[in-house]
Amino acid sequence: ISSWSPLHGDWPRRLGNGAAGLLYPLLGACLWAAVVAYKPVIIVHGLFDSSGDFKNLQRFINESHPGTNVTVIDLFDRSASLQPMWKQVEGFKDAVYPIMQNAADGVHFICYSQGGLVCRGILSTLSDHNVHSFISLSSPQAGQYGDTDYLKYLFPQFVKSNLYHLCYTAVGQRVSICNYWNDPHHKDLYVNSSDYLALLNGERPSPNSTEWKKNFLMIKKLVLIGGPDDGVITPWQSSQFGFYNDNETVVEMQHQDLYLSDFFGLKTLAARGDVIICSVPGVEHVWWHSNETVFHSCIERWLV
Ligand SMILES: *[C@@H]1O[C@H](CO)[C@@H](O)[C@H](O)[C@H]1NC(C)=O
Ligand SMILES: *[C@@H]1O[C@H](CO)[C@@H](O)[C@H](O)[C@H]1NC(C)=O
Ligand SMILES: *[C@@H]1O[C@H](CO)[C@@H](O)[C@H](O)[C@H]1NC(C)=O
Ligand SMILES: *[C@@H]1O[C@H](CO)[C@@H](O)[C@H](O)[C@H]1NC(C)=O
Ligand SMILES: *[C@@H]1O[C@H](CO)[C@@H](O)[C@H](O)[C@H]1NC(C)=O
Ligand SMILES: *[C@@H]1O[C@H](CO)[C@@H](O)[C@H](O)[C@H]1NC(C)=O
């Protein structure tokens, strides 16, 4: 696990010593053009968003990596984002697959909030994906549990104390947020009921887990971005696979069963040095994709 600090890194060198360039200027120029062509970036939005919310992020990418082909997938917008997670995975998968097939050198994923869980589903079930950097931008990777003002606004009738009555039923599981609602006081209900996150995180066994792990491990980097002032993702450490125990103390990723069991490859990725944790204070949930400091500190260098 490496924590990236913008102050201590050096930029990845994209150009070699260029012997070929000295001997064959034209060939060198062609190689240069090929090597600096940035991989296409695919953006997957979160709950209640739509593609228009990513104008700033698109601008940051265009400014730092000119010529990058950025696609914000315009599916399951607004209230349609409440549809079940597996359904969204299938829809987004159909949209991203042709982009991957057009990208011989692979693509990058930037997946925001609930979109980070959609992307987990895609990366686990698509056996020939070519995603290099999977950038998870404040996504509840270990689940969500919190009656924040935002959630109260979205679901005025369901406060934290009784959301599990809705979520942990077959009907509740038809609502996206219930697919990853993780009530630490009713762990067995979550494990038995969650048709999505409990399967992906290996809290409930799935017949496809070996295949899913193999697929997920084809990514080159997992970048987990989050911060203490998020205000929506609860606990905020869920953006980095930390979560509450049954007395609501946050247990960090490295002490979570889902990490220790290496169920879906998280520990393997960390041992490879390919899990990057980027924590930024002072960012509220709705600003993650529009904050230029976040882009420069946590995202930019993984888009090469
Ligand atoms: C990218 O930046 C260039 C130069 O500033 C500008 O002309 C172009 O319209 C931008 N493209 C997008 C998609 O923002
Ligand atoms: C960007 O990628 C999409 C999907 O692969 C493709 O349809 C489109 O033509 C590309 N745009 C440019 C300017 O290359
Ligand atoms: C969860 O499932 C297990 C195994 O099927 C069962 O023994 C247990 O009673 C279930 N727990 C709840 C709360 O439904
Ligand atoms: C496992 O994979 C099979 C075939 O790929 C699929 O039909 C099935 O729905 C998958 N199971 C789950 C739990 O996703
Ligand atoms: C809560 O759990 C943590 C970790 O298991 C433990 O250290 C702490 O003492 C517990 N706190 C209470 C009030 O039970
Ligand atoms: C952007 O992030 C920085 C922290 O890196 C924070 O100080 C600033 O308030 C943020 N701006 C917004 C609009 O979120």
From TrEMBL:
InterPro entries: AB_hydrolase_fold. The keyword RNA-binding does not apply. The chain crosses the membrane at residues 20-38. It is found in: Lysosome. It catalyses: S-hexadecanoyl-N-acetylcysteamine + H2O = N-acetylcysteamine + hexadecanoate + H(+). Keywords: Glycoprotein, Hydrolase, Lysosome, Membrane, Signal, Transmembrane, Transmembrane helix. Its EC number is 3.1.2.2. GO terms for cellular component: lysosome. Belongs to the palmitoyl-protein thioesterase family. This is palmitoyl-CoA hydrolase. It comes from Anabas testudineus.
